[in-house]
Amino acid sequence: MSGMEKLLNKIIDGDCIEILNGIKEPFADLIFADPPFNIGFKYDNYEDNKEHDSYANWTYEWMNVCNNVLKPEGSFYIAIGDEHVTDVKNAADRIGLFMRNWIIWHYTFGQQMKNKFARSHTHILYFVKNKDDFLFKGDEVRIISDRQKVYKDKRANPDGKMPDDVWNEYPRLCGTFDERVNFPCQMPESLLARIIRVSSEKNSWVLDPFSGSGTTAAVAAKLKRHYTGIELSPKYAEESRQRIKEFGNASIEGEGTPPWTEQMEKELKWLYHENKVPTEQLRDDDYLLSLFTEKFNNRIGNKSNRLSQNQVWKRLRKIQKTGKLGSLRGERVQTNGVKAN
Ligand SMILES: C[S@@+](CC[C@H](N)C(=O)[O-])C[C@H]1O[C@@H](n2cnc3c(N)ncnc32)[C@H](O)[C@@H]1O
User: Fold this and answer.
1) pLDDT, tens digit, for every residue of 172-196?
2) Candidates 57, 183, 211: which one to mutate for ligand 1, based on the most atoms within 8 Å of Cβ?
3) 4-246 domain in CATH 3.10.180.10?
């Protein structure tokens, strides 16, 4: 027994270095780490003010133990502030990780400053263990492109574009946000969902060594991945266990996507045929797509969790590709045998 079984689908309280040092076999397909940034933040039982060199050494230490439990084709994402981003990059170089993207999470609600520009970003460095063998499911995270939406360019990929490495779509979670649990530096679920969707599959194993409020574990569970969260504070660990237990069938916070049902699929098809506007035209005409989306949301009667234009359009395309949408009079539809679910 290599010891990793006891970590499966658990939030463990303890020190991630000690716990992961006891595991002798790589098990994680994906690691997301959001360590304390060493900026004097008030945590339950962690002092967030180490000397610079001591923090840099500690960074190397926890990254190295994480790397030891990462599978050979695994991915490793690290969120970090300006003060120590170079320490993370240097540690990754020493360990032999290969960097794929230096992502900037640009958020709204940055902290206001009196005598310098307000900081409104966090770095997310994305590494893999093997530069030629890793999972990247780009189709899972495509977004509608300006080429489609603004320029109405017929040559645009109808499935949308790959997001850039500057992520603008996720606000920092303020105290007033519904999504906020009782934890001060919680990551948005929708941001984690992008990372988990693109770099893991159903039943993959996702590890977060600095679990905090349990965001990574909660999103992994919602997306049907296995998870392990490690958290120094027993209080935070217990609260995140409750968070995971209580989420039920909830959708990813911030995505506003209610669980997709057969009835919704029927409504979408009926609306499409009643509306008589081909998908290509909906794609190219923002106004028509917004009307269509409004009608659909009203029809399914979901007031709190309305689908966005992008979500409605993607769902239509998905059904259309299976050939199950049917064609409007005079419409020529290409399908590719993709299964809708
Ligand atoms: C920035 S927060 C993580 C927030 C998390 N991403 C979320 O969305 O809730 C960092 C967390 O690391 C925990 N921590 C600090 N040192 C640790 C260690 N050695 N092992 C495990 N957790 C640790 C802190 O208690 C804190 O909850």
Assistant:
1) 887 666 677 878 789 999 999 999 9
2) 211
3) no
